[in-house]
Structures are given as structure tokens and as C-alpha cells.
Amino acid sequence: MVEKDLEKQLSSILKGVEDVILLDELKILISNSIKYNKPLNIKLGLDPTAPDIHLGHTVVLTKLRQFQDLGHKAILIIGDFTARIGDPSGRSALRPSLSPEKIEENAKTYMSQAFKILDESKTEVIKNSTWFEPLKFSEVLNITSRFTIARMLERDDFKKRFSSNLPITIMEFLYPLMQAYDSVAINADVELGGTDQRFNLLMGRELQKEYGQKPQIAITMPILVGLDGVQKMSKSLGNYIGVSENPNEIFGKIMSIPDNIMIDYFNLLTRLTKEEITKIKNDMENGSLNPSIAKRKLASIIVENLYDYNTAKNAEDNFNKIFKEKSIPDDVNEYVINKKDYPSGKIKIISLLNESKLCSSNSEAKRIIEQGGLKIDNNKVSDINLELNIDELNSKIIQKGKRYFLKVIVK
């Protein structure tokens, strides 16, 4: 019975992971957990250094949810104290510092978005200021005495900055020690992180040994590739899907990803079993499953996970209206124009796109028009200097690209 349950748990836990340190120890931990009916402490730390998260951030959250579904204890550490430093992983320079107020503000949105993935009722949320605020300086010195500068310079980003004569502050050296101390504070059995967190996770193991605890198992997850299918998902690159975006937008973006990264998305962003995903992969390869059908399933699962079943169904129906039936979706956002704000009775198309937020800037608006991606009531707009009569705009539908629609209301 234990062996069968162990096999089932490992199949779920190992799906999509990059690395496990150490796998044999993990097997022993899970076996004992099953045998003695004692859930493991699964740790995930999040530093609220930005106001929102995208699907790339949910890879580790999805893995934490899988542990929850297996009956283990999910401990989500909000790094309100470590965020004051900022994780130097992969950084070539010191992060700008954030105020406690901004960190708190970010933490609130992080939580609401994280619980789109996690089961809130089964998640223990702790701020690491809980133990760092009262920590005495003598205790900080005790922690730092257990590691050497040479050990810290084994870390790639520190090593590169040191060899390039770029500054590294002592404060940045403290970050991995603080993350490690988080593991000591909650007596973590397993810690999750991206591949860029490997050094920090290993530091947790070492510090736990120093404090007489059983060292945690470190599980790293791959970095999610963005919509372009090449670079990692990133807001700065514009190839991301925000977890709080409109469901129709999320569905449409998923449908736009290259076929060759679809299975990675199934593995990293859904809770389908390894066997179910393997079947989807095999069916596509032997031609019995059209990739577009598989992608619809993927998009529906992701939207349902972030919202609910009905929302996912409506998003698919909306997608069908746009791409199959070539019609306008039912729930088009409205933009209200007040005539009194335009004494001339006219508005330039560039201004309309910018003011309505259909485009993020004048340069984007010009680019969309020049590329033939803008229509008004299904008529293509090609003149970037076009001026429109306000009175004639009422109830007009503006379409940007294939997925973005806006209805103009004139008052």
C-alpha cells in the first residue's frame, strides 16, 4: 500500500520538474509521511517586488498546489523582509530598494493572485518579518559565521560581478542566508523554486544542518517560455500572460503559442497527470489529435484554474465568434467620449487609440495602423493622421488585431 501511494505521489511531484536534490531522500520522506500519516512542510517563498504576477510565476505555485492535493502542508512565505534587499539571483546590479508600504501593497495583490492557483483554506501564509524583525544582531552574526565569502562567490551571478569588478554589497550576500533562515524558521521538509533559485535552496539545506534540522529537499522548476516560444515569459519582453487578465485575453493568448511549447505548458501549468499529458502528446504525434484542439483544451484548463468552468466556456465561445465566425464578441468593452471635451468636434485616430488604452502609446498606435491591424466597423484604417468626427463615432466598433475590440459611446 505504501509503495503504491509512493509511486502515485512521485508521479505527480516529479511531473515537469527540472531537478530534485536529493531524490532518494525525497522518496524516504514521502514514504514516512504515508506510513505515519504526517504531512510534509512544503515551502515556497515569494518576494512581493512587483504588483502582480504572470503565468511564469505560477509554475512553482502549481507545483505547490499538487503537493496540497496530495495532502501535504503548503507554507507560503511572503518575503516582506527579504524584499527590502531583493533577490540578487540572475542580477548584474543591485536592485532598487522598495519602501515597506510598497512591499505591503504588492503583497496584497500577490496573495489574491496566488490563491487563483492555491487552495487558500489549506495554505499557511507567513511573513518572514515575523522572525527577522525580532532577530538580535548577535544572532545575525551567528548565521553569517557559518558561511565563507568563497562559498558565496560560487554563485554564478556573484562570481560574474566580482570578476567584472562590478559592486556587490554585503547586504546582497545576506539574501541567500535570509532565505535559508526561512527554512530553519518553519522547519521545511521541501522547498520549491525556479532553476535560478538552486543556490538559495542549497543554502537552506546547509543552514538547517547547522541548526540540527534534517536538511530540506530542494525541487527546482523550469523557467516558462513566453508566447514567442523562445525567451522566458517576461513583462518587459511583452510575451507574458497576467493571471488577472481578462479571461478572453488569456484564452486568445494561449491559442497563439507555438505548438512546440504546448506540452511544456501542459506539464508546468496544469494538474493533469503525467499519463494524461503523455496521451495528448502521442495523439498529436500520430495525427489522431489536431494540435488546435489540444491547445483549446489547454486554454480552457488554464482559464478554468484562474477563474471557473463557466468563464472558461464563455472564453472559448468568444474565441469561436472571433476566429471561426469572424463576428464581434458579445462582451465588448466600452469607451465613453464626452463631446464637450472636444470643441472642434473631431479627434485624431492616434489620440483615440491612446486615450482609450486600446494602444499603450502613440508609437504602438502608429505601428498597428501602418501594419494594417486597425479596423473601424470592419473597415481598415491606413492613415495615421486620420481625424474622426465625434458625432459619427457613436456605437462604432474599433478592432485592433484579431482579438481586441472596443465600442465607442459618445455623450
Outline:
With 411 residues, the chain is α/β, with parallel strands linked by helices. The chain has helices at 2-13, 23-36, 58-69, 100-114, 129-132, 137-144, 149-152, 156-163, 170-186, 198-210, 247-255, 262-269, 274-285, 291-306, 309-323, 349-355, 362-370; strands at residues 19-21, 41-46, 73-78, 123-127, 190-194, 217-221, 333-337, 346-348, 374-376, 379-380, 387-389, 397-400, 404-410. The strands form three sheets. A six-stranded mixed β-sheet has the order 1-6-5-2-3-4, with helices on both faces.
Question: Can you put this structure into words, describing what you see?
Answer:
By secondary structure, the protein is α/β, with parallel strands linked by helices. It folds into three domains: 2-221, Rossmann fold; 247-323, Tyrosyl-Transfer RNA Synthetase (Orthogonal Bundle), CATH 1.10.240.10; 333-410, Structural Genomics Hypothetical 15.5 Kd Protein In mrcA-pckA Intergenic Region, Chain A (Roll). It has helices at 2-13, 23-36, 58-69, 100-114, 129-132, 137-144, 149-152, 156-163, 170-186, 198-210, 247-255, 262-269, 274-285, 291-306, 309-323, 349-355, 362-370, and strands at residues 19-21, 41-46, 73-78, 123-127, 190-194, 217-221, 333-337, 346-348, 374-376, 379-380, 387-389, 397-400, 404-410. The strands form three sheets. The chain has a six-stranded mixed sheet with strand order 1-6-5-2-3-4, with helices on both faces.
